[in-house]
Amino acid sequence: MDAIIFNIFGDLPIITKSWVLGSVAVSVVTSTGIVDGAKTLYNYDLVFHRGQYQRILYSLFNFGELSWVSMINIFITANHLTILENSLTTKRRFLWMMFLMLSCILIMSVHTQPTASLGSILHENLLYYIFKKSGNQMNIPIFGGNELMFLILPLYMYGMMYFVMKKSLFEISMNFLPAHIIYYCDNVFHKLYNIDLCKTPYDIWKDWGNEERNRE
User: CA 120: distance to chain centroid?
Assistant: First the structure.
């Protein structure tokens, strides 16, 4: 069993592997009481008005105390991160897209408190982005050779959040709107106008350097 776990972990790409280690570490320190669980909760006022910036880092890796449920959530999220990380051309672009999505989430948090940890909300956005890019490939096979449309699952969750949990549409949109904006900039706008709005700062600097050398 241990060998299987190590083999699975070893096959993960580097960014996803780092995220798994961070998530397990946060689960361990909160379960053992090394870090108070309340300090892993993200709140805009506490972070940006009182300078408790570590809450962003904790919340990014916060999937609850160490348990089978948290481990399953981490495993599922790692699977989705692996799909996206392997689909992009460079690791820095993957990190940059995650940073852009997280920035959108933090901006939205000015107006309302996130309904879950930053890690969970970022995961929902990454799922939406993967779905937009892959389309029907994300559908779930069911009996008789039929497929269940993947989008039904988040739509059901959003319906529960709105009608049962009484969350606002703005709170719900935090789970997919950042990813939709990034998808539009990275795919639609890029194809229409041949302008890469999601280009990493390193690539911008690299292209600028190449242009300067060509002029010389």
Answer: 7
